[in-house]
Amino acid sequence: MGNGSSDEVLLDWDEPGIAVVTFNRAERHNAFTDASDRQLFSIVRELRARTDVRCVVIRGEGRSFSSGRDTSELGIRPDGVTDHDYIRQGHDGTRVLLDLPCPTIAALKGWVIGGSFERALLCDMRVASTDARMTLPEVVHGVIPDSAGVARLFQMAGHGLAMDLALTGRVMDAEEALRHGVVSRVVAPDDLDAEVLAIARDIASRPQLVVELAKQTIHALAMPDVEATLRREHLAQTVVMASQEFRDRRAARTGGD
User: Dmax of the chain from CA atoms?
Assistant: First the structure.
């Protein structure tokens, strides 16, 4: 999949009703930038405005789903944008993904890191290839996860695993993720795209109203905690980024003051 465009995020159609969103920075393991976020959120807003979308597949070009935030942009803000506003902008995009009426399926392979892992956790289904490696390394960089993925992780796997991953930044492989219910299926790497598209086609073949209402019913069980977590993370991350500890760490990393 993918059309070879220089765009960092692509939108293709497998067949009528199935949108395929592809992270397209394979040379960087699909690490996301401000530019790719703008493209992603623009695509998701377009899909939300349409009535003919039956299922959305989110995948990565190349070897990985996404290695998270591009480290070259860590801590960088556009002129005049505060940390508080920057985080809010990201949360606004996250809410657009959550508001999609049709099911979303993440196809996980290779590295699935940080904010990209959180976005996958906010999708309705996750299918992993055997080589998938998932991690929340924010603590290593002196920040916290801030896209509400930990709320979903807590709902799926409980307090112990959520704390373990968030506080240590360790890597979880596909088989462990399957045991904890973080992914629902594990397949060979060469079969991942075909398996996810088969699921999407199956969903798209069902009555649209039934699928959307079933999603809404299950979605409503999780959303209060997800929304509350977004609000808490917004404030907590703003405090972290204003702290002397964070400034010292950033200066040590960049060699600045």
Answer: 59
Give the predicted TM-score (pTM) of the model: 0.91
pLDDT tens for residues 189-222?
999 999 999 999 999 999 999 999 999 999 999 9
- Which residues are catalytic, by number? 118, 138
Would you give the distance in Å from CA 41 to the centre of its chain? 12
Query: Beta-carbon neighbour count of residue 128 at 10 Å?
Result: 28
pLDDT-derived band at 2, boundaries 50, 70, 90? very low
Whether the pLDDT of residue 63 is over 90: the answer is yes
* Residue 220, CA distances (Å) to 51, 172, 215 in order: 21, 28, 8
Backbone φ and ψ for 18, nearest 5 degrees, come out as -115, 110
The answer to whether residue 4 scores a pLDDT higher than 60 is no
Q: Which of 237, 196, 245 is nearest to 94 (CA)?
A: 237
Residue 180: which residues within 8 A CB-CB, separation 6 or more? 156, 157, 161, 172
Per-residue pLDDT, 83 = 82
Q: Could you tell me the CA-to-CA distances from 121 to 6, 134, 136, 210 in Å, in that order?
A: 27, 11, 12, 23
